[in-house]
Amino acid sequence: MSVPESRPVAPHDGEASTRERVLELVVEQGPVSAATLARVLHLTPAAVRRHITHLEDHGQVVVHDPAGLGARGRGRPARHYVATDAGRAVLSDAYSDLATHALAFLRQVAGADAVEAFAASRVSELEKRYASILESAGPAPAERVHALAEALTSDGYAATTRTAGTAGLALQLCQGHCPVQDVAEEFPQLCEAETQAFSRLLGVHVQRLATLAGGGHVCTTHVPLTAVRPRTTRVGGAQEAARTTTPPTGDVTEGI
Question: Do 11-91 and 96-228 have matching folds?
């Protein structure tokens, strides 16, 4: 997987700010190796390992099982790191407790339907803002997913894209940070409304595979890049529904 280039960290930034940048990249790009972090931050591997050790000691990052990240040659496989809830909390917004209590009160006095209505209203504003951004990206499905990831990142969701499978017929939209994670743990309606908004924006049925609120290390949404349309064929005088798959347009690349 590829990662965006980052500015070099100047010496006067200090240890704390450099360590925070390391944590940000683990949140955004995890699972990610120390070697990749060193390349992006223009640091020595030894310096990155020092920061990783500090973050591990403080329970902010952990080693992730690298199975499925791709075959590696001889020798010990590289460690890949992901952020913990404590690590994400360092970067999270405040007022989660207040929002959770407010929604709990809303559910108590107005019922679960009121919470769903609130969740839908919340994502509707996001959807309106993102619609023009995706429209500018053009009709290519992959480009629209990348544009959505960039829009989400600008709003603090640390979103990236990854190619799903070897055939390149789908992308995974990954969100390494969620400003409302603590609230969504009690009110999954927020995640459900967001998923439905992604489907409408991308014009395909997407599937949420994991969420930070549900215990995942990243929110992962599977986005197919093929448009399935029905057609009919005659078999023995009767019409049968069949499906044809339109191949995706545009190049399928990792947007990380």
Answer: no
Fold that domain 11-91 belongs to in CATH: Arc Repressor Mutant, subunit A (1.10.10)
> Tokens in use for 96?
């989660």
Query: Tens digits of per-residue pLDDT, 58-71?
Result: 999 999 865 544 44
Tell me the pLDDT tens digit for each residue of 130-143. 999 999 999 999 99
Contact 28, 40 (CB under 8 A): no
| pTM, rounded to two decimals | 0.57
Task: Point out the residues of the chain with pLDDT beneath 70.
Answer: 1-14, 65-77, 91-95, 227-256
**Domain limits, the chain:** 11-91, 96-228
The secondary structure of residue 148, as a DSSP letter, is H
